[in-house]
Amino acid sequence: MAHILVAEDERDIRELINFTLVFAGHEVTQAANGAEALELAPQVKPDLIMMDVRMPRMTGYEACRQMKQIPEVKDIPVIFLSAKGQDEEVQTGLEVGAAAYILKPFAPEELTRRVSEILAQNGIS
Asked: pLDDT tens-digit profile of 100-122?
């Protein structure tokens, strides 16, 4: 079981991700935007951070960029969620330190599988 911080501004999508991850046995902390995720990450020290790219107050990219400057959270893998699949967006995500990119809409099984893969790559079961 991993502790996952989920930052998504659309409540319905956030709830779906929460339900999917909790059902898979993970603990979830929710954030409504990038600024909230940036504030919560050092407090909850999650094993994995999932963030939407486009959020109010602070984008996922900006939150990730700033998290990579914080010693206690800089090594936590970040997965970006986005409906935008252009190569440049994926490239930007990888440049700011993302471990992976999941495109919306996604099937719950796909989300669970990708999360498990990334956790395993980082030595977390």
From this structure: 989 888 999 999 999 999 999 98
The separation between CA 116 and the C-alpha centre of its own chain, rounded to angstroms, equals 13
Sheet holding 100-103, edge to edge: 27-31, 3-7, 48-52, 78-82, 100-103
pLDDT in tens, 25-60: 999 999 999 999 999 999 999 999 999 999 999 999
Name the nearest CA neighbour of 74 among 62, 82, 66.
66
Would you state the structure tokens that stand for residue 79, as one six-digit string? 């997965």
Q: Which CATH code is given to the segment(s) 28-84+96-106?
A: 3.40.50.2300
All residues at 6 or more sequence positions from 48 whose CB lies less than 8 Å from its CB, including other chains? 2, 3, 4, 5, 76, 77, 78, 79, 115, 118, 119, 122, 124
